[in-house]
Specification:
- The chain is mainly β.
- Helix content is about 0%, strand content about 50%.
- The protein is built from no helices and eleven strands.
- The strands form four sheets. Strands 8-7-10-11 form a four-stranded antiparallel β-sheet, with no helix packed on it. A three-stranded antiparallel β-sheet has the order 5-6-9, with no helix packed on it. Strands 1-4 form a two-stranded antiparallel ribbon.
- Strand 10 and strand 11 form a beta hairpin.
- The radius of gyration is 19 Å and the shape is elongated.
């Protein structure tokens, strides 16, 4: 619940600084979560072909232990665009409904721990 106020000054060459607006942030409110590597989670070798993706891509996962997993695709703003069960060591990404740009994916186990991650570029 701690409140943090902040401002910054931006310097270009020898010009006068440009001062930003003052910001206010309360810890635990309005934040973006980021994935943290769990050293105990199994890491998987992930391959994406083709990358950049034009229509579809095949993702293969090597070294994924037996278990239940989900494929989660996030856009560059961190919004979940796809959350699907992963039943085997491959996943076919259908990109027809995705706009051009960079997307990040994670393979999560049934406890929400990361078992693999990567990025794909949609480019039509």
């Amino acid at each position: 619940g701690t409140v943090i106020h902040n401002t910054a000054s931006i310097y270009f060459d020898f010009n006068s600084p440009i001062h930003t607006n003052k910001t206010r942030h309360q810890i635990g409110r309005n934040f973006i979560t980021v994935a943290i590597s769990d050293p105990e989670a199994p890491l998987t070798n992930v391959r994406v072909f083709p990358n950049p993706v034009t229509e579809t891509a095949l993702l293969t996962f090597e070294g994924l232990p037996e278990g239940t997993y989900r494929f989660v695709l996030l856009d560059a703003l961190g919004q979940t665009r796809l959350d699907a069960p992963l039943n085997r060591n491959t996943y076919t990404l259908q990109g027809e409904e995705l706009a051009n740009g960079v997307y990040f994916f994670q393979i999560l186990d049934d406890k929400g721990r990361s078992a693999g991650a990567g990025k794909v570029l949609m480019q039509r």
